[in-house]
Write a structure and sequence with these properties.
The complex is a heterodimer. Chain A is of the alpha/beta class. Chain A is built from 14 helices and eleven strands. Chain A starts with a strand and ends with a strand. Classes of the chains: A alpha/beta, B alpha/beta. Chains A and B meet through helix 2, strand 3, helix 3, strand 8 and helix 9 of A and helix 3, strand 3, helix 4, strand 8 and helix 10 of B.
Chain lengths: ~400, ~375
Amino acid sequence: MGRPVAIIGTGQTKHGNRRDVSYPELVREAVKAAFEDSGITPKDIDGVVSGTMPSMMEGIGMTQFYLGDAMAAVGKPILKTETCGSTGMSIAHTAYYWVCSGEADMVLAVGHEKMREGESQAVMSSCFDPFYQKYFTSGAPGIFAMQCQDWATRYNIPEEKVRDAAALLSVINRDNALDNPYAHIKRKVTVEDVKKSPIISYPIRLLDVCPNSDGTCAVIFASEEKAKKIGTKAAWVKGVAYRGEEYNFGDGDKVEWQSAIQCAKQAYEQAGITHPRKELDLVEIYNPFTFQELLIFECFGFSERGKACDDILNGFYNRDGELPCDRSGGVLCTNPIGAAGLIRVAEAAMQVTGKAQDRQVEGARLALSHALGGVMQFNGLMILGSEL
Amino acid sequence: MTTRVGIVEVAQSVGSESKDNLYEEIYKISKEVLDKAGLSIRDVDTAVSASSDIFTGISCANAYYWDSTAAFLKNGSRQDGESLFSFYYAAMRIMTGHYNTALVVGICRGSEHPETDSLTTLFGDPFSQRPLGLCETVVAAFQMRLYMERYGITEEQCAKVAVKNLGNALRNPYAHRKRRYTVEDILNSQRIADPLTAKQCAPKSDGIVAVLLASEEKTKRLTKKPVWFKGFGCSMDTFSIGDKDLLGGSLRDAASRAYKKADISDPKKEIDLAEVCEPYAFQELLWCEHLGLCDEGEGGKLIDSGRTQIDGDIPVNPSGGVLANNPYISRGLQRLVEVVLQLKGQAGERQVENKMKTAIAHGTTGFAGHCHAVAILGV
């Protein structure tokens, strides 16, 4: 439906602790890279989509104003999309719908965050309602830990097995990040290192958790006509889906996680995918916590229920496995929140266009990118292919 | 290829403080708009809301109210800032053909957020603008002074806007502030930031505003009085106050984009009604110029002529505008709701009697109109 939409260029900052630049400078770095990658200029852009985590993160309201000049958005139509952790994906969706609707031919999507200027866990605690939930939570890890325990108990997975699989997943992601020039945390670790790292919120340990990063990602979306005229290799949007569920943490089942399951169902239908485990060439999962990624593998149908640990331990998700996951190192190694979802899209686009350099998955033609957010409420997907 | 987008129904809360909590009130207004169309939550294909975390006081506020906007297990999104963006985004979603119906909800509660300017000051960068004490009202005062000096607009002409709008609001049951004032009343109210006086500045109000959109075919089935989306334009200015002409701005860009989409070549003749976002009285005059409803520098003459009165030939803000009702984030969408009611002939005592075909809803946020959105609707 609508008209086909392509990604014709991506740009990222070197993510991490970027005290060397101001917030607008950080944004400029990625936007400039996206224009260089696509070979177009800001003049060609019909609209800009900007997005970040809550304003409390950097202490600036309506960041699109402050960053407008850096995004080359002055005098342009602009939309500001913000949906918590899934912001980066929702920005990509906004850009997609803008082009697909025919209201714009070329749209620049920019996700940005300078987390190291704020106190992220304090900000995250303010996502919970001020009457009940806020007093029970301290940042994000608590609810993710509960989700993990619920999942392991439901499927009777031995604690040690879950621990080994999550630790191995951490190692896989961290090894992957070593090949990614943009990644924040680049450190070789062993399964033992993960298992011995300090506890954050049981069973989650320090090396199961993402960092706080400064970073920006910019992605340029174009209509079929424009993409063909420009002539660079494009990634084509095959499926776009998003689902949100109830706010009260105790009200929803986060194991049979409906927002994730139904979101994947819609995206697969659009992309004509019936066997995601076989048909997808790689996945970029939004994985701030190792344990949660295991559960997501199951909700998205890559692994059977209760079997994600076995798949991980058998090498299914390794870089040379049947379904490489987060070849970029994922959110686990790089987490500028407002950009993190869009980085998943950008990495998937780079893979299917053969631009992923040292982290290229050979012959990648169909890739899934994902982001989640809210109080474990939102899941969004974008599936990209190498052919129209 | 793309479908026409129709506005099926609208609903809004009153501007004064509600006894319901935010969650309940959003639910009520969302349900009201669906009830009017005879639809249930199942019939909503996608939901796009507008809110801002610094105004809501909850980070990721869309997470908090998600269920109450008919979005449960639906595909949806949220716009931060100007609520007319959420209208445009929802319209786009329908144009793609992926969705047949979309619920748009604008959310802001003045009764719960701090003084508006203690929040607008956060728009400024922390290094130079914020330490200077810049906020929306202070910058608006600069803009008003410049406007009067450059074009010879008088304080009396600016005050007339407040007289007109707060008077119009007497007929609007949703308006927050309303009264019959004289120009002297307005000018003699407290000086807030010279030359602005208190009654020329908008209050802070509650506003939950819902709009139901549908594809052409669906719209025709759901309502006998459809209003159609004709065009939209938005634009953003450069950041630094000192770098720009405060009377230049980006509204001309936004308007010309919207007119082009709506195929309007002479707005003076073709626009029958405008709901303009005027948090400061003089801005109605300035924005009318930038919207092309009168010539440059002629805003003062426009208000003097009486043409923008409710019984004039180009009524502006028959609802009472933002001066009467200022839910900061949802005020743009509220302008659109009024336009829809007027075009449908459902505006009650404030109904404009002229025969109307095309009308404008305008929204703005930021210092001196940093960012503008213009929606054109028609019957």
